[in-house]
Amino acid sequence: MSTTLSRTDVLRELEGEVGVLIRRIRRVIGERARSVHPELLPASYLMLGYVRDNGPVRASAIGQVFDIDKGAISRQVQHLIDLGLIDRQPDPADGRATLLTASAEAVERMDSVAAERRRRLADRLDDWTPEEMSSFVATLRRYNQALSEPGDH
User: Fold this and answer.
1) pLDDT, tens digit, for every residue of 106-151?
2) Distance from CA of residue 141 to its chain's centroid?
3) What's the distance, CA 29 to chain centroid?
4) Count of C-beta atoms within a 10 Å radius of residue 90
5) Class of residue 58 by CB neighbours under 10 A (exposed 0-12, middle 13-18, buried 19+)
6) Which CATH class is domain 7-147?
7) Residue 86 belongs to what H/E stretch?
8) Taking the domains of the chain in order of start, what are their residue ranges?
9) What is the pLDDT of residues 15-37, one digit of tens each?
10) Cβ distance 98 to 90 under 8 Å?
11) Cβ count near 22 (within 10 Å)
């Protein structure tokens, strides 16, 4: 006898699985942050990744992307500068502003962490076919698009 789940039951299961994913992501981000630098905070790791991928950027742009107030961004940026992971330079378009870039050391460390992350992911998903992975990526993309809000990146 097969049991058919109601849409409500499936949505509950989805919420549960997303909860597991969120907890796992939080743990993994902490591990990655410590791999880049033992004193790097998880929130700062995410900002560092954004600066690396989009830099040079102003601190105000980071604040908008992460929806964090100016004071908190300033503290996070200073933390990254103190750890030698962010470089600051004057903005040639506006001498009063500064631009942030990931330091060469940060890029090297993040590349190393990313290579290890991909290796571990490949090992864990070794029994998935390329078609299964592609299907999962497409479904996850559709899920993220369905839940996106204006301004999400």
Assistant:
1) 999 999 999 999 999 999 999 999 999 999 999 999 999 999 887 6
2) 15
3) 8
4) 11
5) middle
6) mainly alpha
7) strand 86-91
8) 7-147
9) 999 999 999 999 999 999 999 99
10) yes
11) 10
